[in-house]
Amino acid sequence: MSTKEVIRKMFALLKDYRKTIIVIIGCLLISTALNLYIPLLNRRIMDDGFIGGDKKLLITTVLCSFFLFLLCSCIELLKEKKRIEIATKLQYKLSEESYLHLMRMKAEYFSVHNYSEIMNNIQTDIDNMASIADDSTFFVITQIFGIMGGIIGLFIIDWRMTILVLAFIPVKYVAVRHFAKRRKKAMDIYISDRQAYAGWFGDTIGGVREVKLFGIFEDKQKEFEDRQNRVISSQKEMNMLMQWNSMADVVLVQFLTTMIYIIGADMVFDLSLSIGSVFAFITYSAYVTRPISAILNIGYYMSGVIPSAKRYYEFMDEAEEDRGAEYRSVPQPGDIEFRQVSFAYEEGKPVLENISFLIPRGSKTALIGKNGSGKSTVIDLLLRMYTPNRGQILLDGKDISNMPLSEYRDLISVVSQDIYLFHDTIRNNICLYRQIDDEQIFDACRDSGLLEFIKEVSLDYSVGTNGMMLSGGQKQKIALARALIHDRPIVLFDEVTSSSDTDSEQQINALLNTRLRDKTVIVIAHRQAVLSEVNKVVRLNDSCP
Fold first, then answer.
1. Quick check: 348 and 337 in contact, CB under 8 A?
2. Per-residue DSSP letter, 243
3. Closest Cα to residue 400, out of 414, 386, 413?
4. Contacts within 8 Å (CB) and 24+ apart, 462-466
5. Rounded mean pLDDT for each run of 10 residues along the chain, 545 residues in total
6. 55-104 and 18-44 helices, crossing angle to 10°
7. How far is the C-alpha of 505 from the C-alpha of 507, rounded, in Å?
8. 377 and 534 in contact (C-beta within 8 Å)?
9. 3 state DSSP class of 462
10. All domains of the chain in start order, with CATH
11. Which of 46, 109, 353, 445 fits 450 for a cystine, CB–CB 3.0-4.6 Å?
């Protein structure tokens, strides 16, 4: 994505706030116009008040100056209120947009990015992008009028010193352009280092148990120092460039002010300029140089925002799941057929190759095979987490890829070995935002073997992050209760019995002939006790290279 396209997209974000922007620009224009009178009032205070000895004029002019300042401050407060309104709404809009996109993205994105890395990237990019609504952006838009007014004021006072002020512009441009180039390069490095660190951090925290068990704390500490030092180094370079740019700006402005004082003093001594005119000239020069510095610094400022915006829009361009919105037919339970299906996570390394089998509606089918033979992949394909590279998966004779995604998934309940539980109560993890009375929940808990534990702790017991307050068996029982409560026609068991105790295994087996009797059930299992309860077995070989 080109820089121009990124900038165009960023400023397009402000289209929804046109009326508010008009109010902000109006406030800035009024404030700018009022501020143009202040140097003239100050000149009069100095020349006619203090030097001229007119006390009444001095007091009147000072009060007028104070009134203008107070009025400008009120206008500034209104402008800031409106600007902050835009900034917060923009941040919310970007956050909502990225969240919804994230929820719809294909599963393969999450296989190469961990949650810490994703969260860091999105938050950093949104914060940087939302800064287009900060004060400097609107200041630049309106201060063109301030520059024009300032230049007019300068020429009114003295044209010779005005040329000195105008000569400042190309010098400032060269300095800003130099720092902007260096900052953009530094920002690219910083974003890359920060992303790499976030990915490493999420991976390390996810494996904290292994770090403890295998005593690799010192090795991870060294990795931390190396990666964090890279981030700090690139951040330090950016901050120093910002300071160098600010210092260059201050030095150049101070040099200009010094020259004005020297030349102005010479003109005062020659009686060709009044003392008040010198001070008014310095104020007007600030009206010209300050906006010019801000305008020229836009390139420097944008050099820090554009890399984030590029990464954000590249993230937003990541493929989403095909939700099948254009298909109006409602999916119906029926036979499930895999027809010549092939799939590979990486090109040239197929996990499944030309597999075909039929699962009749209402049957109890076991998928078996060695590790790596593709059993869980079959489940993911059936859930449309991935799309086959070749072949078709049919439900009731229709290709599942042609069905509305949400309605299709409403037909399936999943109980997996690695079920995720939200940091919430047992009740809410079972019901998942559905209003279900306690009697039904207790029935599901009884059938899943969870009832005894519920009696000990209650349905409102908080399970912690991903069920950290529960045992593995208790988590699986909650997952089973969840599947039973939602009562869908297709139920998938992904190796849930591999770590279950004998009682839990018997309970699941009993459900196949009772509560799940009329459901289409697919079980990934190895134990003979489970295999004896199914009426069909599909064996996946591991002949794929």
1. no
2. H
3. 386
4. 462/423, 462/424, 462/425, 463/421, 463/422, 463/423, 463/424, 463/425, 463/426, 463/429, 464/423, 465/423, 466/420, 466/421, 466/423
5. 81 84 83 77 80 85 88 88 88 92 86 81 87 69 66 74 79 79 82 84 80 82 91 87 82 82 80 78 76 65 79 89 64 91 87 92 88 86 91 91 87 86 91 89 90 91 88 87 91 71 70 87 76 83 52
6. 160
7. 5
8. no
9. strand
10. 3-316 (1.20.1560.10), 336-539 (3.40.50.300)
11. 445
Residue 494's Cβ-count burial label (10 Å; 0-12, 13-18, 19+) is: buried
Nearest of 256, 392, 417 to residue 336 by alpha carbon: 392
Instruction: Give the DSSP letter of residue 271.
Output: T
pTM (predicted TM-score): 0.72
- Stated as kind and residue range, the H or E segment containing 491 is strand 490-494
Pairing of strands 520-524, 398-399: unpaired
Q: What is the pLDDT of residue 427?
A: 93
Q: What are φ and ψ of residue 394, in 5° steps?
A: -110, 145
Query: Which runs of E-coded beta strand occur in 260-416?
Result: 336-346, 349-359, 364-368, 390-395, 398-399, 412-416
The size of the chain, in residues, is 545
Residue reference for tokens 């107070």: 70
Bridge pairing between strands 349-359 and 412-416 = unpaired
- Rounded distance between C-alpha atoms, residue 81 and residue 23, angstroms: 11
The CA dihedral of 493, 495, 496, 498, to the nearest 10 degrees, is 160
For residue 33, which of 161, 152, 137 has the smallest C-alpha distance?
Answer: 152
Residue 219: partners with Cβ closer than 8 Å, 6 or more residues away: none
Report residue 299 as tokens: 């390139």
pLDDT value for 490: 94
In this structure, what are the phi and psi dihedrals at residue 422, rounded to the nearest 5 degrees? -80, 155
The DSSP symbol for 106 reads: -
The Cα 195–Cα 93 span in angstroms is 23
